[in-house]
Structure formats: structure tokens, C-alpha cells
Write a structure and sequence with these properties.
Mean pLDDT: 91
Radius of gyration: 23 Å
Order of helices and strands: HHHHHEHEEHEHHEEE
Strand order of the largest sheet: 5-4-7-6
Low-confidence stretches: none
Number of strands: 7
Structural class: alpha/beta
Helix content: 40-55%
Strand content: 5-15%
Oligomer: single chain
Distance between the termini: 36 Å
């Protein structure tokens, strides 16, 4: 997975920078990259890998878990000289081999491909621009859109990073056009099919919130009863299998609307969850 390759490259980059700066007793320069690394780890790698940790693809799930453990363990060693107590806590939680992280050898940074770091930076730059364009157009991220056109061709031909980009901004296709007068162009046309998918995503979010209110755990499998009108019935029927999978539903019932309704992007819905 490109996320794993990138995260391990960032770890090697951090290791080499900290090694050079600590050897020169430049403590401020050694510490400065730590915050950037933690931000990359938490707001990008872990967030983007969240579904991988519970994926049915066992191989990818193992890669995600193993990479996370390895990165955190090596990170505990890197911060040991400057954050000794946090380093010790991390190391013990990860069941390090030694009695203490402070008895470990200093990590050696592996060789890494700088291109993956630059290309991932480009992914995140485009994501930022696309999300800004969405906000300007008043379109929620849960509403799928058709085409995103990008001026810079750095990612052209890289299917794995393009897939990551499309998933993050909820688009169906990315095009590259060096003649574009702006950095990106967002096609905001919402077809009936895209509108249906957007309503489905809103329904999923609403049920997930209801699960949280009921203090259900992600592993709890439930029975779901949905009251909808004719338009809503078509959407639920179309996405039934995906709905069951995403929301861990063993029994799904569709009925006529009754009682207090919830508005799902213009469609009134009633929801009942039971175990």
C-alpha cells in the first residue's frame, strides 16, 4: 500500500534528520521535525488507514497493523532523548524487547525513495485545493462528484495514489490538463446517480451517529428498520448490501414512514435499531 511505503519513508527521513542534528548538538533543529511527523502520522496515515485496520483483505490489514507498530516503536526510540517519559510509555505499550527504551540502540535510518514523499505531498496539496473548492461551492464531502481536473501531471499514471486522492475528495475521476489556467477545476454537476449516492452516504452517517448515541461498539451487529417514502425505498434497495456491510446489520427491514422523521438530504426517514 502506498500509505505504508510513504510512512516508512517519512520515518527514515525523520531518523536521518534527527541523527545529524543530535550529533551536532542542535537540539532545536532535531526536535522541530517531530511535530510535523506526528501530524503526518495521525491526520493522514492513521486516518486514511482506519478502514484498513478492520478490512476483509487480511494481507492489507496485516500490512497496516505491522507498519503502525513498527513506526511507533521506532518513534519511541527517536524521542527518547528529548521526551523520555512519553518514549518509555510508548515503548512499554508496544512491548519493546528491552527493559526500557533507554537501553535500546539508536535507530538507523533505512534508505528511502524521496519521490514517494514528494508525490504524497502533491496528493495532499490537491486534496486541500479540492476541499476548498467544495466548501466554496457549498458541497459536502459526502456528496460524490464526477470529475476533478488537475494542472500538475506529477501523479499521472500512478493508479494507487490517484485512487487515494479520489477517495479522499469523493470524486469519480481525475483528469490532467497542463493547459488549465488554474491549479484544479472541480466539476460540480450532480447527476441523479451521484445524488442517490450522496443521500446513501448521508443515511450511513446518520445511522452511525445513532449507533454512537446507543453506545454500540463497532463490533455490534444490529437489526435496522428504516421507514422511507418511495424515493428513499429505491435508494435503500439499491445500496442494501453495502448498507448492511458498512453498518454491521444482520437484518434490514424497509417500511412506510411513521413517527418522527429525520431529513436525509430532502428525504424523510425514520430509523429503529435493535440487537
Amino acid at each position: 500500500n502506498p500509505l505504508d511505503v510513504w510512512m516508512l519513508a517519512r520515518l527514515s527521513e525523520l531518523t536521518k534528520v534527527m541523527t545529524v542534528e543530535l550529533d551536532a548538538y542542535e537540539i532545536d533543529r532535531a526536535v522541530k521535525p517531530i511535530a510535523l511527523f506526528v501530524d503526518d502520522l495521525s491526520t493522514w496515515y492513521l486516518r486514511r488507514s482506519r478502514d484498513r485496520f478492520k478490512s476483509e483483505d487480511r494481507k492489507d490489514k496485516v500490512y497496516a497493523i505491522t507498519t503502525t507498530e513498527n513506526v511507533l516503536l521506532q518513534f519511541s526510540k527517536l524521542i527518547a532523548p528529548v521526551m523520555p517519559f512519553l518514549a518509555e510509555h510508548l515503548y512499554r505499550e508496544l512491548r519493546g524487547e528491552k527493559e526500557s527504551v533507554h537501553l535500546e540502540s539508536w535507530p538507523v535510518g533505512a534508505d528511502f525513495d524521496e519521490n514517494i514523499i514528494l508525490r504524497m505531498q502533491e496528493v495532499r496539496r490537491i486534496v486541500s485545493l479540492a476541499l476548498e473548492a467544495r466548501a466554496g461551492a457549498g458541497l459536502k464531502v459526502r456528496q460524490p462528484l464526477g470529475k476533478l481536473t488537475v494542472k500538475n501531471e506529477m501523479l499521472k499514471g500512478d493508479a494507487s495514489l490517484i485512487a487515494l486522492l479520489l477517495d479522499e475528495v469523493n470524486m469519480k475521476e481525475v483528469l490532467f490538463d497542463t493547459g488549465l489556467s488554474i491549479e484544479i477545476y472541480l466539476d460540480t454537476t450532480i447527476t441523479p446517480e451521484l445524488q442517490e449516492e450522496g443521500r446513501f452516504r448521508e443515511l450511513v452517517r446518520t445511522v452511525q451517529e445513532l449507533r454512537k448515541e446507543m453506545k454500540l461498539t463497532p463490533s455490534d451487529v444490529v437489526a435496522l428498520e428504516i421507514g422511507v417514502n418511495e424515493d428513499g425505498k429505491k435508494i435503500v434497495s439499491k445500496f442494501e448490501s453495502e448498507l448492511k456491510k458498512l453498518l454491521r446489520v444482520h437484518t434490514l427491514s424497509i417500511k412506510e414512514i411513521s413517527g418522527e422523521t429525520i431529513d436525509i438530504d430532502g428525504i424523510p426517514v425514520t430509523l429503529t435499531i435493535g440487537k
